């Protein structure tokens, strides 16, 4: 079925709670870390009247772009909620003008009240970024909003594996582009490009000589991100010969990997190396050969032993999780020393992300999401082996992920040089739910694709 026909099938409606949650997230992200400072109202008004335009350098560009990204979902989903299927150009223009004005008023309101929150700064640069983000969100909805939402529903619900595969592959490539190019701090002048070229010439063409644990983890992550690319292509073109599939996977992964590295060259925080292209190609080939495995046959054979296999692997997983979380690297504190480092601000979601760079914050979220993937996947394996009601196993996976994350983060209180980030508890629960549901959906697609 053609992708257009597949999208047309899915009637959908943006619920009010979605743009509302976007607005809440904008408010939360704009006022964190919630350090209130006392300023007379008249002084705040005068300060806002003389709001400055700052000369931002390349170092501050990621922070400026973050303001754009913060408002794109708000403009996008608010447009989706307010838009109607009508041929009246006049009505549509009024609707989207109202959305734009609402976003701008919200941005002005937030910028004004940021004066009362330390260490927040207020500038015309932020207002410009928020205006651009709101406009981009509205334009994105007008250009392809219904198609994107339709693709999401197709990947999530359609019973036809071919349609779901097309939707999954397209959405995954968008996700891949987003996380690899974040924070989108693109170079904007010849001087900046010359500076980046000088840095690029100074580094190794393949990879850094210092092969550390961080380098190994980064390499594995880059390869793992391309496993679905090879897997989806391998299934979608499963009726072609192996040689043709290998050629297509190689060309696709090489071109996508090369394009990512090329675009990363034009970002201030990006690191471009040919080695990363090769790693992504290997990851795609791993995905291609993984889908040749008869998972249904393997699962049927392992069903009676699934619980015992998970119990056997869990201690190894726990040791790796503690190691990756930084336990025992710098020594222990006693109970009194550890408790004295606790601060109530540690309980605020994404508190420490504010004091980090955008790139580090996103890497932290991705790593912690990945840390609890085995828990969600193990919960799905148990559910699949017993064919019981999935809600119980989802809740069990979430509970174990949250409990494990709470244990790891609390333990950081008593580690020298570490601090707990209780945001990771939320990420752990979210990871368990997402991986459980994604595993179930992907297995359904794979199984029906090979039995058609």
Note down, in words, how this protein is organized.
This protein is mainly α and 452 residues long. The chain has three domains: 155 residues, no CATH class; 107 residues, no CATH class; 159 residues, no CATH class. It is globular and about 75 Å long.
Strand order of the largest sheet: 1-2
The shape is: globular
Structural class: mainly alpha
Give the SSE string: HHEHHHEHHHHHHHHHHHHHHH
Estimated radius of gyration = 24 Å
Q: Can you count the helices?
A: 20
Low-confidence spans: none
Proportion in β-strands = under 5%
Tally of DSSP β-strands:
2
- Overall tally of domains: 3
Give the end-to-end Cα distance, rounded to a whole number of Å. 15 Å
Mean pLDDT: 83
Relative helix content: over 70%
Biggest sheet statistics: 2 strands, antiparallel
Entry keywords:
452 residues, mainly alpha, 3 domains
Topology summary:
Elements: H1 3-8, H2 17-31, E1 35-36, H3 41-49, H4 61-82, H5 89-113, E2 117-118, H6 124-157, H7 161-181, H8 190-202, H9 213-225, H10 227-236, H11 242-265, H12 274-290, H13 295-302, H14 306-324, H15 335-340, H16 351-354, H17 358-371, H18 373-386, H19 390-411, H20 423-451
Antiparallel strand pairs: 1-2
Helix pairs in contact: 2-4, 4-5, 4-6, 5-6, 6-7, 7-10, 7-20, 9-12, 10-11, 10-12, 11-12, 14-18, 17-20, 18-19, 18-20, 19-20
